[in-house]
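Run log, item B.
One chain of 402 residues. Sequence copied directly from the ordering sheet:
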Amino acid sequence: MQITRDVRKFVSVHGAKTLLTMLFLYGIGTGILAPMNAVYLNESLGLAKVQITIVFAAALFCNMVITITVGWVSDRLKSKKKLPVLAGFLCVIGLFIYMNAAGFRTALIGMTIAVAPSGLIMGQLFAMARNHFSRRAGDIVEMAQLWLRASFSVGFFAGLLLGANIFLIASFRGVLLGNMAGYACLVVLLLLYKETTGAREVKQAGIGEPFSLIMLVAILMLSCADAIRGLYLQLVVLQLFGKPEIMSYIWSAQAVFELLFMTMGGYWAARYGSKRILLVGGCFALATYLTYVSSSSLAIFFAIQLLYSFFVSVLYGVAMGYVQRMFLSRTGFGASLYVFISQTASLIGYFLPLFIRGITPKVFVIPSVLAAVSLLIIGMVLYREKKSDSKGSMSQAQVRIR
């Protein structure tokens, strides 16, 4: 069975387990804070909706600038490992300031220092991983990327559950300390990891993707819809059900399926094409957003995570590989570009719901529209490709007849 052979080859690659552990622990550290961030700013510091948005947006904008700038030049560097190590140290310093914030200004400074360098971490980790597997096991490099991303996701959702319990025991301060511990673990593992830089390259299986600006726009819109959910669902859940820890449990429901869906999505993308799988995932996302708008049942909020889990697996796995394959010769830039797209989507997503007054399920009308437009774009691209392939087949048939 192909998947069994691929998994055995993956775990036999030297350094693969270290990369898996690195991303898993980093995911735990990130997941501990994620669902509590906006709630911390609102409940502990008393910030209003607009102030929370400004804090998130300012930190994210700095993150975007650093990510794409360093991503552009990182392929010229012999070693990429130094970048996430430096970023990890800066994030810990920022979190210390953020943890001791007394109001809007110090929260803004702390979160900016904590978040701005973090874009280097994900982008450069996956650039390092692609280099690592392309030189040691080129035929499974795409699946290796997906499994590493799934490892981060599993860690992230483990962190959600851990964060919810830490919050009950040690409040927001304990949650922030847990986030700091995640960055510290990442730095230690990075220092121990031996980066692959000058080894002989093995030819990768498959081919690159042609550059498509319209598909990048479609992915941006899907990412934007997901970003709106990521920030505002926790606030809506708090409004509807009154308990901050519920959001951690809702998000953690995705972990049960995400590793399976990322694996399935990767093999299906290789068989049917990335764009078709993105289309299916986008349909599931649209169904989820419409459910958020129309339902106030906690049971339904949990049940719909099954559909959304597939979408997230496709967005973070299949879409990431699709963007990276547009720049196979520039792994650092390709990985950073995908992170930059996600960051741009988040920045847009933070502001769009401000057009809807208050914190209500109505905010999910916006991601519903974004997902619908993105699906229309992907559908048009697939239609044009099918039409072009049909014309090509007819031309070849005419040549044979002549």
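Observations after the first pass:
- Residues 43 and 287 are 31 Å apart (CA to CA).
- The longest helix spans residues 141-192.
Flagged for discussion on Thursday.
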